[in-house]
Each structure stands twice: as structure tokens, then as C-alpha cells.
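Reading a protein record of the kind used here takes little practice once its layout is understood. The reader may check this reading against the record printed directly beneath this paragraph.
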Amino acid sequence: MTEQAFDPVADARCRVLVLGSFPGVRSLQERRYYAHPRNQFWQLMSPVVGVDLVPLAYPDRLAALVARGIGLWDVVGTARRAGSLDAALRDVAPRDLRALAGRLPLLAAMAFNGGAAFRIGQRQLGPEPGLALVALPSSSAAYTLPLAAKLAAWSRLADWCQSSSPSGPSAPSSSSSLRSPR
């Protein structure tokens, strides 16, 4: 059966967009990014944003990311997959990353959660994407790199989160596009 990924979680303040490949089974069931309790995403992002995201309710996790200029999305919009491993992705329909980037005026970097996300995203963006592309080790527990090594790589995202445009970060608008996956 073909499954559909989630809407982006981002607004005009987004400086770094973290892109996964495609939601796993648990995330699809719960309609939440990184829902599997063994996925280390929220642990890896906590030091980046300076807030322990793990104990927070899901909407509060998303709000903490967005408030610090971090957005979430996936490089694949629809696909078939038995299980949660990227190697099992079939009938992949990639997302239009350039179109979303064009709607995020402060976007400086796209960070890819794992090798599959990076390969798919890099193909879509081409040789001159016009912003930094950051390949990160997968937050999946199936990727057995020690957490400390993953943390060292993911901590680079703080450079974009702490920077701002010369005029400062944009103020939130009343028509914020912060959305939870549906």
C-alpha cells in the first residue's frame, strides 16, 4: 500500500530544515515525526536547541524546534515500504525541496537525517543548491553508530539555529504555518 508522508513543520523563521527520508511504521501510525521511542532524534536535537525535548508533549517539541528556526520534513512524499528501513522503500515520489525552500526566506541549510535522505535530497537539489547541505548520521536505532558520535555530528546544527539574518530573526506572524503531521 502506498503511504503518504507528513506536511512540513516550519514557518518563515526557519533557518535549517531537517529532512528525513520517509516516516517509519510507528510514525505513520501515530501521525508524528520520529514517534518510535528508540529513534534518537529528540535526544539528538535537545542539545541543539538547548531544551530537553524528550519529556515534552509532541506539540511542545515541535514548537521548541520552530521557535529556534528549525523545520522538519521528509524528502519522500509518497512510497511503499514493508517495515521501516529505507532500503525497503519502493515507488518513491520525491518532494519538491526547492519549492519549500523558496517559501522559507531565512533558510540557510538543509540537514539530512541519514544517507538515504541525503542521496534523494541531493539528487533533487542538483549541484548548486544555493544553501548548505548537511549530511547527518541517521537518528534511527537501526544505525548503530554510538550516540556520542551522532551527537557530535548533529551538534553542528546549532550554528544555524543561533545565527540570524542581519536584521534579526523575523517575528512570528498571525498566519504561522506551524503544522503537525496529519
